[in-house]
Design a protein that fits this description.
single chain, 981 residues, mainly alpha, 71% helix, globular, disordered N terminus
Length: 981
């Protein structure tokens, strides 16, 4: 649509010309339209390009370039039959036309007709003159080599590609000269474009050579140089950009950035390039950005529905997302386009494997090997899907080893084999596999190198063994964490195995990382990959960040995280890895509840729940898994927890366990829901919506309409008199900080709704406050409240007015109403607490402090204040509960231990008193004097004696005396007498 009108204006006068133009004018006409058609082609205006090529054919029915141009427009849209018909028309008139032969060979390659592609390419090669740069011959050789490679005939393919090595050597001086004169050549497109095309073909051949012979990776820098020069000579040679994405994917380092750069450069100029979207998607899959990869591949399919490579990317991610119907559809459509597509055949077989059809899997892989007997990559792909979808690393290892038998040089398969073995806790074998990958591919491979480094680090960790766990700690944190983590994990084991009626394989390996980067590498092999993730479970191996990993206190709430990951051990093993991502994550979030006093009250996510409910954007259960691969992954976790909480309310623990067992029997989600919860999937969606509605009932704030901004804007265009929609659109602009637009849309809306409409009044007041006119806003707000309106933000604004006026009772009432309007925010509570403190009402202040602490489960300062208040009121048990919550947040803070020791001693809990005393000794700071530390050793000696540990008490007493022989002499002497010294 964006080019149709200009096209009509452009073509009109020409169409009116006399049909019997002189030959020279016809030549000018043809040349002009060919150039414009090629320009349309580069811009992705395929229909426009086809019309322009057709105008040429009307003048010159035998024009080969125009006929091939029409065929290209059809090919890029996936209309392969029509493309082939155009090429056949050309070859019928010109049987020896090499361009036509190459085009048909390329089309055969896309359709999986590998023998025909090779034969036609060879025919095209044979018709070359051997003089000068032979672009058709180079393209034909590349197609022939690709066709041979896809049939597993690697030696023959390399023999074809050897021509390019010699050709590159022969043309090296010309390329150097072109690089030196690039600025001059760019001004001569008739020279620069063919040379750019030639460079791209040679670069692509060098890339394919490396794919067939990884040890020849040294050709990749040459390929990169050629492709960069190709881009410089012709900035719109999109194939050079796409080929660079392929090359950098082989190089590993920088692949992610190169793919995104190509996308960002090309898309504004040609958003309809399916090959670009596909190659970016393939790179992002390799970089674990699978959600974005799927999005890119889906864009490719919308442009070219027969893009088999793109279909394979979508199918792979959909299988990993538990969307089998989506995967099946893409596999079916992809194989209809290319029945010999190796990855699609492997994915089809893998889906059978995921569904428990072993015979189908073996038959499917046999079919893949009939196409290419050397394609171990198919087993590698199957292993990756199984590892990601089921956390079945044992099975993934088997699959990768089968692939390596077929293709021993696949260094990526060796690298992933090492990672999966590490995820099984088999570090020695893991390092051997990683070393083999390094031997095969000695160049940079960030994931592999990172993983090798972290395995060496893990070897140096300190280990604690319990009945059911092997737990590793950084030596610098060992003295403190060994006092907390083992006990917590054994408590989790006892609790969950009893409730689930199931014991996982033990011992479970647990690794606690002091640095977030080490954890990130252990999780996915990349540094600083995802600062949201603080724990990961591989089925029988858990890894978590320590409380100090992020540096900032309260980011890692280690105890709920450890419980969360152990819940994964339970759900993954009980379901044999078949549980959907949303269910295992949601269940693990729900299992945090006993250790998280603020469970389901996290303000930021509660706002998102509220917005989703009011804007109708709560995800459907059938496609919910995909949200875990988007930037909204944090909200996905939170919502998943609420989903499982709802299911628990429907069917109890019994229903949850039954669902896990049914998943373990390869039952589809529809059947699981009906048998375990008595719900159809669509019924779940409805009832969960109602469940969320009840949770947010009574809460009052304006939803964030920016979530549905596009829909509101489209509605305003189709029905400009819908005042309610205009009002919501005005709020959407306000949410997007587009305040001028918000005011303009508000004025339009007010002409179509009741002037007293609550949302209208409220937005007018909010805009006035934002513009620094609070006095004008106030009467509007008061009218809003007087008419029965209620809003959290508005009550805070009102409270500020009342505070400045000194109207204390009204101020408190406004804050209480704000809290009632939005009970998960700490803002009104903090104001109320400060007010009660200033008014000398400590008991009221304490009640507010308790509410604040529940809403801030990671705040140690609030809990320390709570403990102090409780002690002052002789509520020692409550004080200890607050302090123990501090330990679940960060046991490396000394203040809670100092406060807890005497409380434990008073309660007769000498074991925990000893624990806190040991922590204080271990937590010596840089500025702590010997005298201070000696006092801690003496306190430890005293509680050890009370606990009956006389020998250790004597050791601690001796350490106190050694550090500060002049300090606490009387206390030491008294303790020595008790010890009989």
């Amino acid at each position: 649509m964006r080019t149709f009108l200009p096209l009509i204006l452009l073509l009109g006068p020409v169409a009116a010309q006399d049909e019997d133009l002189p030959p020279d004018e016809i030549s000018d006409y043809v040349g002009r339209y060919l150039e414009r058609a090629e320009e349309s082609l580069r811009e992705g205006n395929y229909d426009e390009a086809r019309l322009r090529f057709a105008k040429v054919l009307k003048r010159e029915p035998g024009n080969a370039a125009a006929r091939l141009g029409v065929a290209t427009t059809y090919r890029l849209r996936g209309a392969y039959d029509r493309a082939e018909a155009e090429i056949d028309e050309l070859l019928k008139a010109h049987p020896a036309d090499r361009g036509g032969l190459v085009a048909k060979a390329r089309l055969h390659l896309l359709r999986g007709r590998l023998g025909e592609a090779r034969d036609l390419a060879q025919e095209a090669i044979g018709k070359g003159s051997g003089e000068g740069p032979d672009l058709d011959g180079l393209a034909a050789r590349l197609i022939a080599a690709e066709a041979l490679a896809r049939r597993g005939k690697r030696d023959e393919a390399r023999t074809v590609l050897d021509h390019f090595l010699e050709y590159h050597r022969m043309r090296a001086d010309s390329y150097d000269d072109a690089n030196f004169r690039r600025d001059e050549l760019k001004l001569k497109p008739e020279v620069a474009r063919p040379l750019s095309h030639e460079l791209t073909l040679v670069g692509a051949a060098l890339r394919l050579y490396v794919e067939l012979s990884p040890l020849d990776e040294g050709f990749l820098p040459n390929a990169n140089e050629l492709l960069l020069l190709a881009q410089a000579l012709d900035a719109e040679n999109w194939e050079a950009w796409i080929e660079r994405v392929r090359v950098t994917r082989l190089e590993r380092e920088g692949a992610f950035a190169a793919a995104r750069k190509a996308r960002d450069v090309i898309v504004p100029k040609n958003p309809e390039l399916a090959d670009l979207w596909t190659e970016v998607g393939k790179t992002l899959v390799d970089s674990w950005a699978t959600g974005e990869a799927r999005e890119m591949a889906e864009k490719a399919v919308t442009v070219n529905p027969r893009q088999a490579d793109a279909r394979a990317v979508v199918a792979q991610v959909a299988l990993q997302d538990n969307e089998y119907a989506v995967a099946e559809e893409h596999i079916k459509e992809g194989l209809a386009a290319d029945p010999n597509h190796r990855d699609l055949l492997a994915l089809k077989a893998t889906m059978d494997l995921l569904l428990g059809n072993e015979e189908g899997f073996e038959a499917g892989m046999k079919r893949m090997l009939e196409v290419d007997p050397t394609y171990g990559e198919g087993f590698h792909l199957a292993g990756q899907v199984v590892a990601e979808r089921q956390r079945r690393y044992d099975r993934a290892v088997e699959l990768l080893r089968r692939g390596i038998e077929l293709d021993p040089a696949n260094h990526d398969a060796h690298a992933n084999l090492g990672i999966y073995l590490a995820n099984l806790g088999r570090e020695k074998e893991a390092k051997e596999a990683l070393d083999k990958s390094k031997q095969l591919f000695p160049w940079s491979h960030p994931v592999r190198e990172n993983f090798r480094t972290v395995l060496e680090y893990v070897e140096k960790m300190e280990t604690v063994r319990t009945d059911h766990f092997v737990i590793r700690f950084d030596p610098a944190e060992f003295a403190v964490l060994k006092l907390f983590v083992p006990e917590l994990l054994e408590d989790c084991w006892a609790d969950m195995t009893r409730r689930y009626g199931f014991e996982p394989q033990s011992p479970v390996l647990v690794e606690v990382f002091r640095k977030a980067d080490d954890f990130s590498v252990r999780a996915v092999g990349l540094l600083d990959y995802n600062r949201f993730a603080v724990g990961i479970c591989f089925g029988g191996v858990m890894a978590i960040d320590s409380p100090q990993a992020m540096g900032e206190e309260g980011v890692v709430h280690w105890a709920p995280v450890a419980r969360h990951e152990f819940a994964h051990v339970m759900s993954l093993q009980l379901s044999k890895g078949q549980v959907p991502r949303w269910f295992t994550e949601g269940l693990s979030v729900l299992e945090e509840k006993p250790l998280d006093p603020g469970w389901s009250m996290e303000d930021g996510y509660e706002i998102q729940v509220y917005d989703a409910w009011y804007t109708g954007t709560i995800p459907k259960i059938g496609t919910f898994d995909a949200m875990f691969l988007t930037p909204r992954v944090g909200f996905a976790y939170y919502l998943g927890g609420l989903m499982v909480d709802f299911l628990h309310s429907v069917a109890g623990e019994e229903g949850i366990v039954k669902a896990l067992r049914l998943y373990g029997e390869d039952r589809p989600m529809e059947e699981v829901f009906e048998k375990a919860f008595g719900l159809r999937l669509e019924e779940f969606d409805t009832r969960f919506h109602d469940y969320l509605g009840k949770r947010i009932e009574g809460r009052r704030r304006v939803p964030n309409y920016a979530v549905v901004f596009q829909a509101l804007r489209e509605r305003a265009l189709t029905d400009p008199n819908d005042g309610e929609n205009l009002l919501k659109l005005a709020w959407a602009h306000f949410n997007r900080k587009e305040f001028v637009e918000a005011g303009a849309k508000l004025q339009l809306a007010r002409a179509r709704v009741d002037p007293a409409h609550p949302l209208s009044r409220l937005l007018e007041a909010r805009l006035l406050v934002r513009d620094g006119k609070p006095e004008r806003a106030r009467p509007i707000l008061e009218a809003f409240f007087a008419s029965g309106g209620e809003d959290f933000e508005a009550r805070l604004v009102q409270a500020d007015f009342l505070r400045r006026e000194g109207k204390k009772e009204a101020f408190v009432a406004a804050l209480e109403k704000a809290h009632a309007a939005w009970p998960t925010s700490t803002v009104p509570l903090e104001h109320l607490r400060r007010y009660y403190v200033s008014e000398g009402r400590p008991d009221d202040a304490l009640k507010i402090l308790e509410q604040e602490a529940r809403l801030a489960p990671k705040s140690i300062p609030l809990r320390l204040q709570l403990a102090k208040e409780y002690v002052a009121r002789a509520r020692d048990a409550d004080a200890l509960k607050a302090l123990e919550q501090c330990f679940n947040i960060n046991p490396f803070r000394p203040e809670p231990h100092v406060a807890a020791i005497e409380l434990y001693r008073k309660a007769g809990d000498t074991k925990r008193a000893v624990r806190s005393a040991r922590c204080l000794v271990a937590l010596r700071g840089e500025n702590d004097s010997d005298e201070e530390v000696a006092g801690r050793w003496l306190a430890l000696a005293e509680v050890l004696l009370e606990d009956g540990q006389r020998e250790e008490a004597a050791t601690a007493l001796g350490e106190a005396g050694r550090l500060a022989p002049e300090e606490n002499a009387d206390r030491r002497a008294e303790l020595g007498r008790k010890l009989g010294q």
